[in-house]
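Q: A small favour: would you put together sequence and structure tokens for a protein?
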Amino acid sequence: MEMIKVDRLSFAYDREPVLKNITWDVEKGEFWGIIGPNGSGKSTLLKCLSKVLTDYRGDIYLARENLKFLSVQQMARKMAFVPEETVITFSYNCMEIVLMGRNPHLKRFEFEKKKDWEIARACMKETMCLHLADRFIDELSSGERQRVVIARALTQEPALLLLDEPTAHLDINFELEIFDILKRMQKERGLTVITVLHNLNLASQYCEKLLLLKEGEVFAWGQEKHVITKENIREVYGVEAIVGKDPLTERPWVFPIRVEPVQEKN
């Protein structure tokens, strides 16, 4: 079953095209990475998928329902979005933050019940942040904070999880920890995961399939071994690279060696 279907999607900021005729589909339970250089449209695509941006051309279907006809609450019961930067203006404790993920399942003025608390605790345990439940969110390190934000997203009980650079600014230990959590949730819950990444090696090791964008268009998509090639990296990133196999996973491993000189236009 298709979890996401994108049909001829285009988007522009102030008439400047950012996405151009994107067609793409994601099956239920898959782990996708969206890669490409800065300005290629990765985050914009994710914002269209999550309905942060709505004035796009084309169609996006979530579990065969057109996003244009779904309310915010209907979407939030099926999909959760973790942005690159999560702004929390008040000093809530972490349990309060995670419980906010239950809001799409509550009626107006309804308070959380025992089941909601149990779901929140279970998600915090799964993301290894239950011990932070009584700590205030603004007291945490970046890695701890990101685990709490992901726990809140999982507390929505989504079928689809969207993440925009979830490990940006994190040390390598937190980076691997976050992706280990996501991979486990995919396997145990049947969760569909779509994440934007800059790190090609991280994308290759954790994502089953990759979507490579160049200047707002789909350049390549499919299994990591077909997308992460020295030819594609040269063409899209302007970088010469050695692409070998990871000795443990046999997935592609990228070692950049030099940048192609930029040719000035006349």
Remarks:
- The chain has a mean pLDDT of 91.
- The radius of gyration is 19 Å.
- The first helix runs from residue 42 to 49.
